[in-house]
Specification:
Keywords: Membrane, Transmembrane, Transmembrane helix. By secondary structure, this protein is mainly alpha-helical. It folds into two domains: about 140 residues, no CATH class; about 120 residues, no CATH class. The protein is about 60% helix and about 5% strand. It is rod-shaped.
Length: about 300
């Protein structure tokens, strides 16, 4: 692309959603994070019990500081795993409270794991003042460190992933450098780009050798912008699968936006019904791959 060319507009319409693999990875990481936080809070409770038993009044500073270090280590470990889970399966900004809690839960749990114990250390009238100062200072420093690590300063969101995914798809289709194709969005962006290429290839005619990125699908239920169940999109309105149905048309990206997310598995048949030329290898490859990956889709 030359410098004086205007980059194509990115059609941000298909909402990003975590795949089953991404959801599975996020679930495992969240379970591990919860276990780490459970250890941190359990260690805090043990410290509180020992503090109430006056075990640190005139000694045992190594034990108390060791407990604080354990709390910090497991709190930080849990926060890192939780933030990694959010990258796989982020929250939406639509629900502001849930978005905040999900992304800053590491910092919240860290405060819970440290604050009660620190308050009791500073309020303990029986502990040696020097020991109190040492233990309290170490505890505050560790708590601040763990809290800062637990904060997500640039939390991911489904809205950001949607924008990245569609920009990635646009870059793939136009042959630009795929700067927006992060691991979280690349797979689904490639699906959009492959479907668009397959449709364009399948709709070539003598009058239009370039083909067209136009497909047809069953319209969403009345008053809704998106169908509740996934639909197949087709090459034209005259195919047998769409007869007698309310049909919408548009680009592959627009079809995805209304939950028509599966390309027809009957491209050769539909080409005959729609009057298009014979399918190329690229057009035929995508439906075959889809059928192999999802036997249920073939039933459609």
């Amino acid at each position: 692309m030359t410098d004086n060319q205007t980059p194509p507009q990115v059609d941000v319409t298909k909402a990003w959603a975590a795949t089953q693999d991404q959801k599975g990875a996020a679930k495992r990481l969240r379970i591990y994070a919860a276990l780490a936080w459970l250890v941190a809070i359990g260690t805090e409770i043990a410290g509180i019990v020992m503090l109430k038993q006056h075990k640190f009044d005139h000694g045992n500073m190594a034990l108390l500081i060791g407990l604080l270090v354990v709390i910090a280590a497991f709190a930080i470990g849990g926060s890192l795993m939780w933030k990694a889970a959010n990258k796989h399966d982020p929250a939406s900004r639509v629900d502001g409270f849930r978005f905040f809690v999900q992304n800053q839960l590491g910092a919240i749990i860290t405060i819970i794991a440290f604050l009660p114990l620190l308050v009791l250390i500073f309020m303990d009238k029986d502990m040696d003042p020097k020991n109190k100062k040492i233990a309290g200072g170490v505890g505050v420093a560790l708590a601040l460190l763990a809290t800062v690590i637990g904060i997500d300063f640039k939390p991911p969101s489904t809205e950001q992933y949607t924008q990245d995914m569609n920009q990635c798809a646009a870059q793939i289709k136009s042959g630009q450098p795929t700067t927006a194709c992060s691991p979280e969005v690349a797979q689904q962006a490639q699906e959009i780009a492959r479907d668009s290429a397959a449709v364009t290839d399948a709709t070539k005619t003598a009058a239009n050798p370039a083909g067209q990125d136009v497909v047809y699908w069953i319209a969403p239920e009345a008053g809704k912008k998106k169908s509740e169940t996934p639909h197949v999109f087709h090459l034209c309105q005259n195919v047998s699968s769409l007869r007698g149905k309310s049909v919408n048309s548009g680009s592959v990206t627009q079809a995805y936006a209304e939950n028509a997310t599966r390309i027809t598995l009957q491209i050769p048949m539909e080409q005959g019904q729609c009057g298009f030329a014979g399918a190329s290898k690229a057009a035929a490859a995508r439906p075959a791959a889809a059928a192999a990956a999802s036997p249920a889709a073939a039933a459609q």
